[in-house]
């Protein structure tokens, strides 16, 4: 199973029996069996026929809409999960300060631990004193997380730990690209452009996992609940940011797959060109299909399946079947 991305604005997606037909203008450029599709992502003004929308929703395949440059716009989802009992427990848990604090600590520990582990991997055998100092600071911050007595304190530890991580992110990238700090709205350089785009894709996949399990993704614990903000999806994706998106970026940069000429600066905002965007989508999907041994279940899974498994573990916590949420931590 995989995601179908429609990126060209002159493209259309149509139904033919139980197959998805991709056309550019009147030319057929793709023919995909429905059974091989788990979601469809449409960029910009690319079109999708009404008949195909009906078929996809009937087959429980969600459709997501992103802007041309990857900003999330919305999604069409199949009939809502019938697991209303889970959502009742979710609403209770997300209104319980003690539960929210406990869950927040676990996801922040997971995120910062994964960040630190990846830096240690990437600098093994060639680690500067500055990187060593930052790794020590990150370790200290991870150890501090459990002492946080409220959500705001834990958010502070997460913010400081993330700043430490990004302060040395440039040291694990090739010399062609320079990364100084994280900038979001708008991204000021190619690496920030890739990070923002990748995190949008990851958020979309976490949303799909939460809907599948039966959650309301707009009611969370760690991220503040605001109108239109998918707080629970943002909560769950934290531990996956470094191991999925950041890993894809390092692979593309350090293997010379992309260069500065793949980006353009318009009015202070850096955007990627079509070739880079399409290559990123390929590498992102390849990463999601990569298998590893799950540290809790001890069997082979890929990263896409892991998103669902972590959502199911969270559901077990909220239903009282296990005591606390175990974040996905890599070694």
Q: What do the pLDDT scores average to?
A: 88
> What's the CATH H-level superfamily name of the largest domain?
CRISPR-associated endonuclease Cas1, C-terminal domain
Distance between the termini: 27 Å
Largest sheet: 4 strands, mixed
What percentage of the residues does DSSP assign to strands (E)?
Answer: 15-25%
What value does the Rg take, in angstroms?
A: 20 Å
The gross shape turns out to be globular
CATH fold assignment of the largest domain: Four Helix Bundle (Hemerythrin (Met), subunit A)
- Structure classification: alpha/beta
**Helicity, as a percent range:** 40-55%
- In CATH, what is the class of the largest domain? Mainly Alpha
Q: Compute the number of helices.
A: 10
Number of domains: 2
CATH architecture of the largest domain: Up-down Bundle
């Amino acid at each position: 199973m995989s995601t179908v991305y429609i990126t060209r604005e002159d493209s259309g997606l149509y139904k033919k029996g139980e197959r998805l037909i991709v056309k550019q203008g009147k030319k057929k450029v793709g023919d995909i069996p429905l059974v091989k599709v788990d979601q469809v992502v449409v960029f910009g003004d690319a079109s999708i026929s009404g008949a195909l929308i009906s078929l996809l929703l009937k087959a429980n395949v969600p459709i997501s809409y992103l802007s041309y440059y990857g900003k999330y716009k919305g999604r069409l989802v199949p009939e809502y999960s019938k697991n209303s009992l889970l959502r009742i427990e979710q609403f209770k848990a997300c209104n319980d300060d003690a539960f929210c604090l406990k869950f927040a600590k676990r996801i922040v520990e997971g995120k910062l631990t994964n960040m630190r582990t990846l830096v240690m991997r990437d600098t093994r055998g060639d680690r500067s004193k500055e990187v060593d100092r930052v790794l020590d600071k990150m370790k200290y911050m991870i150890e501090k997380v459990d002492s946080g007595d409220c959500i705001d304190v834990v958010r502070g530890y997460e913010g400081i730990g993330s700043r430490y991580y990004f302060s040395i992110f440039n040291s694990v990238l090739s010399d062609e690209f320079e990364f100084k700090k994280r900038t979001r709205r708008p991204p000021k350089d190619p690496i920030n452009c890739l990070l923002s785009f990748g995190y949008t894709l990851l958020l979309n996949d976490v949303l799909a996992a939460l809907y599948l399990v039966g959650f309301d993704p707009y009611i969370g614990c760690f991220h503040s609940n605001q109108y239109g903000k998918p707080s629970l999806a943002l909560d769950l994706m934290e531990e996956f940011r470094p191991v999925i998106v950041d890993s894809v970026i390092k692979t593309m940069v350090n293997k010379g797959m992309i260069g500065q000429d793949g980006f353009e600066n318009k009015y202070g905002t850096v955007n990627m060109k079509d070739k880079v965007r399409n290559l990123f989508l390929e590498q992102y999907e390849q990463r999601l299909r990569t298998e590893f041994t799950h540290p809790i279940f001890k069997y082979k899974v890929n990263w896409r399946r892991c998103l669902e498994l972590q959502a199911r573990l969270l559901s077990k916590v909220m239903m009282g079947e296990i005591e606390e949420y175990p974040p996905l931590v890599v070694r």
